[in-house]
């Protein structure tokens, strides 16, 4: 209940970091913590704004879905599990777009070498996860770069194969006698379910692993002390430029200096990625990015899962709504919205 | 019952006299308990649940923690009597497994809390003075710590686990029964029969065991049944915060918690009804037992 | 006493693993320089000083009535608590009062008409109400009354943009009902059991024998059954005014509970300790009141204090 991703919605902290709170189509008139933000249209905006007043509410996704049905809400972010229910509501349109981040398992790379990570990734049936838990609304990811032009076409897809994963793990020198822990911040239904399935799949190839739900502060403390084995990470904004993903890939960004919480470190990758990031022209940098992506794909720097789509349900009264996957853009063309019929 | 509808006194007299000589009080209480249909029903239901939870997992062909993702959220069928959950685990196997956890947490925590609370509260109320002041302050302090904070802190330090939940719940719940016991003793110790006992030179231990504890028990037993309910329900609430029973291990609380979505509520009753009914039946039968025990040991009541 | 609670809270909060400065700085902020940002945050929050020094500074300003500032929102903690107090008292207070208004007559009648249909019905309903987890009852309530029947609003304090009292009352119905049902259920049991205890006593028989009507006898018994009731109430009120995290969350009600849990998650020490002190003060006040009330409702009690 505390994960902000489960809060439907319309309101996240990211929104407040945006300059458009002051310069955008709407200005804030009232803020009630844990409840709602009242916005009114900004008369000085470069374009005419379609809706006079806009209210952003903090609700659990269940209540948001209920309010969508009663007409109290016109737009809500929907949990993947409720997709079918929302689609069946009359007067509600569902649209979705890939988010700008992706879900991944972060392994403590100082404990688990690339061979182990490859085996663990092969043991996860990501396609079935997407089909059952996300209603098909998620895209497989096999690289930490989300920018299409930076990715070579021949990346290893680590297709699910339990038997192969088992023999890979046995060949990797993995210590089967130890008990490992998987810690994550619980509260988002789809993640909690996926993690339960993944733990099963890992246990099936002989990994002795236990779930450990933590809160954010404990998670960071364990990352800092390097006491953790596996943790879970999601979100982010990585579609604009492959360089944005370097925040969690470069050796020099190892936590706490940067966001590399998995302590991934490969000098070859560092050299190539830094060179690519320093190359201005896209045409010149793309081939270098592709080389770097190839290394990263082979190393399984992070145990990538998928990019879940952000699913928006809008009442048919709300016109001109376009679904954006990431919150940075979610309200980019809010000025075009209109309430009608 | 007479026309005034107040419990009439005189018929209680024979039992009092029989208590002194003819029938041992324990057997008399048992006899009274057995004559109470609700209390018997409660005991039977609880016994059935305990048996189901103990032996159910041995009979179930499925593991409660491992499922087939392909069959996720399927309705009850011949293969899965209670259907499957969001990741394809057999719901019946999870109800059995969850019951082990929920019943253990609920009863052990409540029992621990009541035993400690009654003793401390009774002694505190009886002795009064400095001892009472110190104990009352300790109780105040314990009560003034927000429970959620304590649970998260302990979950962080010790790691979330079933024993941790039992101890933390007991630590948070015992002051409640202590306060109730103390309040009753404060009133009891001024009453004639207690004062008479004191004047006649009875030892403190005798008065506590013979007069105070029996006087305190009815109120505490009622509180205890509510504590069991509290502990079972708290376990559900705590799983909200990720400090509860850890997955994949099931508990009735986290199963119910997993069902709080409009989709599940409206179209998948097999996911929320079984754990809901299980919690419901546990709380219901515990309370019936509590009422029965209270009536049975309450010597002022006629059989 | 106050000092012990203050020290206890201060230490307890810091025992939880995790560093507030770490949680304040986004994980991918300023790659390469994040460590400096965390260090700066730690200095700014005064967390770089040894814990005893932190305590003395905090306690010093506390004595001046200053609870400090939230690490995450930088609002004054006192103001933060005040902002949450109104909605909390409104929600929980109404639930408590409504619950007691139901429980007192029902509990008394159930005891007086013991073993009749009324008693059985009251007992059954109260047990059923106690056996359903509040979050589930809340969800069911929303589903039935807001989604299916569409007679009540599902969440929030007001309709968007509105702020009149009627609107507020309308939004209160569902959450207050959910909470009041639990209160009524628990207290019906307490009151019934307390009444039965008294009705069995010799003095009631004496009163009845002397010719008092059933009403007078009942009132006598009720007055004497207030002792355990006051004890339970003294326990209930502080817990109640600390907010109900789950119900607040579901009904999107800006109460104390949500504030405390959110503060806990980011290790917002000043807010957590501020909240803890608020609860401690509530408990102390209620206990004092209870002890005073004991002597009022039952003159036989000589309080130890």
Automatic annotation (TrEMBL), chain A:
SUPFAM superfamilies: Periplasmic binding protein-like II. This is Solute-binding protein family 5 domain-containing protein. InterPro entries: SBP_5, SBP_5_dom. Residues 15-254 form the Solute-binding protein family domain. It comes from Pseudolysinimonas kribbensis.
From TrEMBL, chain B:
The gene is oppC. The lineage of its organism: Bacteria, Bacillati, Actinomycetota, Actinomycetes, Micrococcales. Residues 99-290 form the ABC transmembrane type-1 domain. It is found in: Cell membrane. InterPro entries: BP-dependent_transpt_permease (IPR050366), MetI-like (IPR000515), MetI-like_sf (IPR035906), OppC_N (IPR025966). Gene3D superfamilies: MetI-like (1.10.3720.10). Keywords: Cell membrane, Membrane, Transmembrane, Transmembrane helix, Transport. The chain crosses the membrane at residues 38-59, 101-128, 148-174, 212-233, 270-290. Belongs to the binding-protein-dependent transport system permease family. This is Peptide ABC transporter permease. It is a multi-pass membrane protein. Coiled coil: none annotated. Its main location: membrane.
From TrEMBL, chain C:
It comes from Pseudolysinimonas kribbensis. Coiled coil: none annotated. It is a multi-pass membrane protein. The keyword Transferase does not apply. Its main location: membrane. The lineage of its organism: Bacteria, Bacillati, Actinomycetota, Actinomycetes, Micrococcales. Keywords: Cell membrane, Membrane, Transmembrane, Transmembrane helix, Transport. Residues 85-290 form the ABC transmembrane type-1 domain. The keyword Transmembrane helix applies. Belongs to the binding-protein-dependent transport system permease family. This is Peptide ABC transporter permease. It is found in: Cell membrane. The chain crosses the membrane at residues 89-112, 124-148, 168-187, 226-251, 271-297.
